[in-house]
Design goal:
This protein is mainly α and 137 residues long. It contains six helices and no strands. The longest helix has 32 residues.
């Protein structure tokens, strides 16, 4: 898979889940996560949705860009997002917030895959930039 294909896939996932969380938080919380939808939970789901939708749009916009320090930063930030978000759903399930293991297993697998993908392309882009600078010097 090319970096452009990977970023397109990641953008599609982030925009899809972000849109559901932002515009239909009850569907995300109750039907997808088997969680109780309190007022605070709805606000947090919408906030997370806005964030995910924005990250998805960013990834879509830069998907065809060439190697640059900015691309390295975007890929690194995306990898960190996946790393930071990875334990949230399993913890929610094991502490009783989510009522079904399927509310976290697919997402956890997805976050692991995205983490490895972003880390791979971050390393590849960083190496490509270093090689280009070595040729110039």
């Amino acid at each position: 898979m090319s970096q452009k294909q990977f970023l397109t896939f990641a953008a599609f996932i982030a925009c899809s889940i972000g849109s559901i969380a932002l515009f239909f938080p009850m569907i995300l919380l109750v039907e997808m996560k088997a969680a109780t939808a309190s007022g605070a939970a709805l606000v947090m789901a919408r906030t997370a949705g806005a964030f995910l939708l924005s990250v998805g749009i960013l990834n879509f916009m830069v998907r065809a860009d060439s190697a640059s320090p900015t691309m390295v930063s975007i890929l690194f930030a995306n990898a960190m997002l996946q790393l930071f978000i990875l334990p949230i759903d399993p913890i929610a399930y094991f502490t009783g917030v989510y009522g079904n293991p399927m509310s976290f297993i697919p997402n956890t697998i997805l976050h692991i895959g995205l983490l490895f993908g972003f880390a791979h392309f971050w390393r590849k882009t960083k190496t490509e930039i270093a090689a280009n600078h070595a040729k110039i010097a």
